[in-house]
Amino acid sequence: MDVIIPSLGESVAEASIGQWLKKVGDAVRADEPIVSLETDKVAVEVNAPADGVLTELLFATGDSVNVGAVIARMDAGAGRMVAPAASGAGMPAAPAASANAAPRQKAAPALVEPAAPANQPGTRGAALAGDAMAPAVRRLVEDYDLDPASVAGTGKDGRLTKADVLSAIEAGTARVKGAAPSAAAPKAGRTEERVRMTRFRQTIARRLKEAQNTAAMLTTFNDVDMTAVMEARSRYKDSFEKKHGIRLGFMSFFVKACALAAKDVPSVNARIEGDEIVFHDYFDVGVAVSGPAGLVVPILKDAQAKAFAEIELEIAGFGRRARDGQLKLEELQGGTFTISNGGVFGSLLSTPILNPPQSGVLGMHRIEERPVVLKGQIVVRPMMYLALSYDHRLIDGREAVTFLVRVKEALEDPMRLLIDL
Q1: pLDDT on residue 19
Q2: Which end of the chain is more exposed for a tag (fewer CB within 10 A), N or C?
């Protein structure tokens, strides 16, 4: 039985083999993940079409494959393990000639982790790390190029959990593959390491450069007094969470403020298509969230019609699925405007880059107390810098400034969001 690359979504015709989750000889069940693919936007798992045993892997990690290509073969219904051949056990065989198969790249050697001594922390987790790691944990280890033996597993039977890996990264105890333990003397001289860019990172690089080469980008700035928003959150956070099961965050205020401002300045929510301008009567906002491979921008659709709780629940879901590598392709497609919150990483000021074909992106930044003059008095207020990058081919400076002022007014007086002012 052939294992075939399924349809990966609109406009996605090619992917790369990110990680084989099973090897030749492994018994698999129907719908059990066999391989993780890297597309231009997200990682996608391909599942077994039936119960059986894997008999042949036709591509190696890093190879490009087209939708519809046969990537593996299995003996459907087989109930016993098939021993892989001595040469290249667990490695893909030479790919069969196919019109839709990409040119074969040189296969990387199979990774064999050195056994850790029995008295070392993380030994049990490392022993079970290879085949027992959940796909999300495996992706996290691969993205950071970590040695599983350096992470202590706290899951069942010593298995590694995502929390184990994240804790080890934060504590600085997780080692990169091939790195000497911290107790070892550093190697003499200087070294370099070459790591192939993932398809996801290549796509980010290409699209960002495309935005710079295509759009006439300009950024305008303003600052906003966050006192009113912070007071509203403090006053209603407990009752809001009790009723809706989600915390009241800042992002819902910004989404609603931008949706309101876009009604007054529709060009910010439009795009250029050839020699025409396409205006939208809906506000589909991309919200940048952090995933293991970098920032991704899932789309919050019809944000102009959503309540605060709906916005917070959807954004929280985006963040959770991004961290677990479970965002769907359809959640990343489309969008008429983008909001990027660099403040969560401590950014004071930045000039965000457009996400083509969108014409506007708002950058949020950290809140810090600063002295400001209010009614002739110097007072301390929690202030945030806002940055609007826009395509000057479509949006004039007056319109960009007007949009930012509308956002500022709505945030400094949230009642405007309720009465549509």
Answers
A1: 76
A2: C
The tens digit of pLDDT for each residue in 137-187 reads 777 777 777 788 888 887 766 777 767 777 777 677 777 776 655 555 555
Q: Which two tokens stand for residue 386?
A: 């806002």
pLDDT for res 121: 43
Please tell me the predicted confidence (pLDDT) of residue 86: 39
| Distance of alpha carbon 356 from alpha carbon 208, whole angstroms | 8
Q: Report how far apart, in Å, the C-alpha atoms of 154 and of each of 41, 81, 164, 165, 169 are.
A: 31, 29, 7, 10, 15
d(CA 124, CA 155): 10
Would you tell me how many other CB atoms lie within 10 Å of the CB of residue 4? 14
Q: How far apart are CA 76 and CA 1, in angstroms?
A: 6
Inter-CA distances, 391 with 208, 261, 402, Å: 14, 17, 15
Q: How far is CA 354 from the centre of its chain?
A: 17
Tokens of 229: 């928003």
Radius of gyration, alpha carbons of the chain: 25
Interatomic CA distance for residues 372 and 255, integer angstroms: 26
List 56's β-bridge partners, or say none: 73
Distance, CA of 157 to CA of 91 (rounded, Å): 27
Question: Which residues are catalytic, by number?
Answer: 392, 396
Which domains are seen in the chain, by residue range? Answer: 1-110 (2.40.50.100), 123-171 (4.10.320.10), 199-419 (3.30.559.10)
Helical spans, DSSP H, in 36-122: none
Please give the average pLDDT of every successive group of 10 residues along the chain, which has 421 residues. 75 74 83 78 76 83 80 72 43 44 41 41 45 67 78 75 74 69 60 78 80 90 95 91 91 94 94 92 89 78 93 90 80 89 88 91 94 93 95 94 96 86 65
Report the half-sphere exposure of 72 (CA within 13 A, side-chain side).
35
β-strand pairing of 377-391 with 276-278? unpaired
One-character DSSP codes across 266-327: GGGG-EEETTEEE--SS--EEE-EEETTEEE--EETTGGG--HHHHHHHHHHHHHHHHTT--
Q: pLDDT tens digit string along 216-270?
A: 999 999 999 999 999 999 999 899 999 999 999 899 999 999 999 999 999 999 9
**Distance between CA atoms of residues 337 and 316, nearest Å:** 19
- Among 361, 368, 319, which Cα is nearest to 343's? 368
